[in-house]
Amino acid sequence: MTLVMAVVNVTPDSFSDGGRWFHPDPAVAHARDLIAEGAQILDIGGESTRPGAVRPDTDEELRRVLPVVSALVTGGAAAGVPVSVDTMRAEVARATVEAGATMINDVSGGLADPAMLDTVASLDVDYVCMHWRGFLGDSNTDATYTHVTTDVFDELGARRDACLAAGISPERLILDPGIGFSKDADENWQLLADLDRFVTMGQRLLVGVSRKRFLGALLGGREPSGRDDATAAISVVCAQQGVWAVRTHTVRQHRDAIAVADRLARSRR
């Protein structure tokens, strides 16, 4: 059954929640609420990846995420739920794994920090490698595709090969097609329509569409907090296609939607 990875943004400038969980205590309390709703993985992030976001330096990113990871793992607040850290920096990956994280979610697929792949291989933890063409809002980022599914499939395959060559175990590697990153709305919908192709790549597949702009466009310009039901509909599609996990800002409706899709699939079998 498709798992639900719940987002905890420890940032002041996230597009989705406006810094509501920026400080450790509210972030940990929010994580507890997500666990109570049924979160199966917690993904802690200290850097916003919205278009034009200013990157915190390494020390600031660590200041944001380390207390939360420590409280969840060492302090027991995670109640046994695995903790992932959303980072593009090898130094942050190492420090948070030492604090108890068991997964690194790197939206750059190892391209933002040349030390990332070797570091993750040495840490022997799960690694999410996302398709990436550069920082959102950077004028140098190439967002032109000949055919988006074929291009993303080939480029993500090349990053998969780089991960394996660095020594990351195939069993540890998770792929993400990077929906919403350097793709327009039509391209995002095309990737979702072609998820079955990415499921065949040989690794677990993570899909993150929660509250993203292309859903707001579909819904007449609705604000991020009003996009959760549409996100849950996509979670059903992901479950039907055999996606390993979906990354979401809320949990209960996604668990319910996936349970329905799974029950129908068992009846068809």
Structure description:
The mean pLDDT is 93. The protein has 269 residues and is α/β, with parallel strands linked by helices. An eight-stranded parallel barrel has the order 1-2-3-4-5-6-7-8, surrounded by six helices. The protein has helices spanning 24-37, 58-73, 90-98, 116-123, 148-165, 185-193, 195-199, 213-218, 228-240, 252-268, and strands at 3-9, 41-45, 83-86, 103-106, 126-130, 173-176, 204-208, 245-248.
Span between N and C termini?
A: 14 Å
- Biggest sheet strand order reads 1-2-3-4-5-6-7-8
Low-confidence stretches: none
Whole-number average pLDDT? Answer: 93
Number of helices: 10
Oligomeric description of these chains: single chain
* Classification by helices and strands: alpha/beta
Which overall shape is indicated by the principal axes computed on the Cα atoms? globular
Q: Kindly state the number of beta strands.
A: 8
The largest pleated sheet is described as: 8 strands, parallel, barrel
Residue fraction in strands: 5-15%
- The residue fraction in helices comes out at 40-55%
CA-atom Rg in angstroms: 17 Å
Order of helices and strands: EHEHEHEHEHEHHEHHEH
